[in-house]
Amino acid sequence: MAKKPRTIITCAITGAIHTPTMSDALPWTYDDIAAQAVEAAEAGASILHLHARNPENGAPSVDPEDFTPFLGRIKQATDAVVNISTGGSLTLSIQDRIRPTMLFSPEMCSMNMGSMNFSFHPLAKRYDDWKFDWERDYVANSDGNIFRNTFRDIEEAATTLAPHQVKFEHECYDVGHLYNLKFCMDIGLFKAPIFIQFVMGILGGIGADIDNLVFMKKTADKLFGDDYRWSILAAGAAQIPLAVTASQMGGNVRVGLEDSLFISRGVLADSNAQQVRKIRQLVEDLGHEVASPDEAREILGLKGGDKVQF
């Protein structure tokens, strides 16, 4: 009997877009980030994509001291692959954003493949009362953001992190980012097999629909041939539908409260694990099996959990 296809589930636990006001389920304390990450792994996520938060008010943080309290706990409680974001701030430099990865040397980290307008300011109109003073201006003023990821920034991050043997989750928000990645491969910054995350539905990037997913996939096939693995991150209401489509196209999937606060249209998710359980059920019902952490390591060519520094 032929072996069933394996689908890697990544869960993005908290991110840097949503704020505490938007959902009581969004984890922002050290304890909640750790607990929800472990629960997501137990539900079937083989990769945990992690941001940090200020434990006093839930504001996004790239301070390594805000990663320390939960990274060790996650590693002790699960065998999941830890993926640390290098995109935890839309305003700080790449040097600041890669500090946690440099210190903790995880198996994976994210890498945005181009500068872009990155905004979520329409969310500010949905709420009248905010839990913390920083939230409203943070959301409303995102229409002035340029998320900087120049070729120089990408090269600096790649060369600085090269000794750590970290596998990058190359986040591509539009077709041009795939061409940026191809250029970077051609000059030797990244080696196959690369792992591409198609990011769809962010204001400033490509829209979240099936035609765009097919086009992104066809473009990646043309540029990278057999030298890449891929996944999809679809924001908001498109999260689960496009994840299901991607799994049937041979891709992997990412869910989590970073990308969507909902479990179905108009219904807030109770936790990250709830989203993982839902996509796992759908993927398995359609004939795939969910990859274990060790299977994900083999598929992506990771260095192994024994080589991290936390």
From TrEMBL:
Gene3D superfamilies: Aldolase class I. This is 3-keto-5-aminohexanoate cleavage protein. Signal peptide: none annotated. One of its GO terms (molecular function) is metal ion binding. InterPro entries: Aldolase_TIM, BKACE. Its cofactor is Zn(2+). Coiled coil: none annotated. Keywords: Metal-binding, Transferase, Zinc. It comes from Paracoccus aurantiacus. It comes from the Bacteria.
